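in:
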């Protein structure tokens, strides 16, 4: 059946609504019927009034009867009276036995009281074997249905709200339960569990969500295969590149012994080193993106780590100035010295490569809230505003980035950003007002 879920929801809503109206109608009738009769206690009190009136009537004590009637009227704030039952037919008409048996000047106390009538009915209690009647307008305090308005609101508003909420919860659970399974599977898939599937758990529904689960399984199967293929491709590529690179390096060593052009040999060696670095960085970047490892497992001193990297930078770039502002100590818990060190090294090398000779590169480490900020400022040309986020993409290169001392392939900054993110931090770039680029590393203290 097409649109099975639609018909399920329609059936649930329609049947639930019909049952709701039927239940409200049934409860209204039952409640109204139950609340339309005088309470047993009040009926007993009215009977006591009638017996007292009967006592004075049979004793022919009219004065006491009048006083008693007056007391009742004052006590109950109502009208009361005792009247005879003499009804005389006129002409040839007569009173039937049925009339004489059911004759009453008012309503019997066991009868139903209409809750919608504003006026209180007159109650009739026969006395003296039916020869007289004790009549009294039903006192307000004895009238049934005192809470009928509140009860009707409860039945017509609160009850429908409760039942519709129940129906909504049923529909919500019916729809959201499989969607929650899909959400959980999607989260597991994004975390690297490419074998997760939901089709079997949703097969019994046989509706649109089942089709969605089958589509998800197909997508997961296809993407999983693509990712595995990519991993194998990167692994095979790295293996295949390492072998010829090793051979080229051996050939360079042989060429050096043959007194060939030193500049040409140096250029070839430089290109080989760049290719090897590119392969290693690409493998590491792919490993971080695909495996998402947890590297936050050690405590380190950020200042000691930066000092060791600065020593290497001074040796590699002796014609650059380093202006350093750092505290004596900066302890970071739950981090990775290797990841943070690799990231800072790539950022510093990038800044030194873009800074002209004899110009300074500034490194500033400071504490902000529960984080350490590491700012690396160069004196280069900066980056166009629209490309500030692009420079962290793998293999992205700006047109002006080709320099004598900088021939990278754009993997270093991408790898640095991923290393910082794996350690719970952030890496952003911004242009300085007076020219140059600032790289800001934010690392949590724990």
């Amino acid at each position: 059946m097409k649109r099975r879920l639609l018909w399920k929801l329609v059936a649930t809503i329609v049947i639930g609504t019909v049952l709701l109206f039927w239940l409200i109608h049934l409860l209204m009738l039952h409640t109204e019927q139950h609340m339309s009769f005088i309470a047993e206690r009040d009926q007993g009190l009215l009977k006591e009034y009638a017996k007292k009136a009967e006592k004075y009537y049979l004793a022919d004590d009219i004065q006491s009867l009048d006083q008693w009637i007056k007391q009742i009227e004052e006590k109950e704030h109502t009208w009361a009276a005792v009247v005879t039952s003499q009804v005389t037919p006129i002409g040839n008409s007569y009173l039937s036995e049925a009339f004489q048996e059911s004759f009453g000047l008012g309503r019997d106390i066991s009868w139903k009281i209409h809750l919608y009538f504003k006026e209180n009915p007159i109650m009739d209690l026969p006395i003296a074997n039916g020869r007289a009647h004790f009549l009294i307008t039903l006192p307000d305090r004895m009238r049934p249905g005192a809470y009928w308005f509140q009860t009707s609101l409860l039945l017509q508003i609160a009850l429908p709200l409760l039942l519709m909420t129940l129906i909504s919860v049923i529909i919500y659970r019916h729809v959201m339960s499989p969607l929650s399974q899909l959400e959980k599977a999607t989260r597991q898939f994004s975390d690297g569990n490419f074998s997760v599937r939901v089709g079997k758990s949703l097969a019994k529904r046989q509706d649109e969500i089942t089709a969605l689960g089958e589509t998800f399984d197909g997508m997961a199967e296809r993407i999983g295969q693509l990712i595995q293929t990519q991993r194998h491709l990167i692994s095979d590529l790295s293996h295949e590149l390492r072998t010829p690179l090793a051979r080229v390096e051996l050939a360079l060593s042989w060429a050096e012994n043959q007194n060939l052009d030193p500049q040409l040999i140096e250029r070839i060696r430089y290109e080989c080193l760049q290719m090897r670095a590119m392969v290693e960085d690409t493998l590491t970047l792919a490993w971080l993106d695909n495996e998402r490892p947890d590297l936050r497992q050690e405590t380190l001193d950020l200042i000691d780590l930066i000092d060791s990297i600065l020593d290497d930078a001074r040796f590699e770039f002796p014609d650059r100035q380093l202006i350093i502002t750092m505290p004596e100590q900066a302890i970071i818990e739950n981090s990775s010295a290797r990841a943070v060190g690799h990231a800072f090294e790539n950022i510093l090398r990038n800044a030194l490569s873009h800074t002209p000779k004899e110009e300074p590169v500034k490194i500033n480490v400071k504490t902000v809230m529960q984080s350490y900020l590491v700012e690396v400022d160069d004196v280069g040309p900066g980056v166009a505003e629209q490309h500030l986020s692009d420079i962290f993409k793998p293999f992205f290169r700006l047109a002006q980035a080709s320099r004598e001392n900088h021939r990278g392939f754009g993997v270093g900054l991408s790898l640095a950003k991923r290393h910082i993110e794996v350690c719970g931090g952030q890496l952003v770039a911004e242009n300085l007002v007076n020219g140059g680029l600032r790289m800001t590393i934010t690392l949590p203290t724990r």
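note: The radius of gyration is 48 Å.
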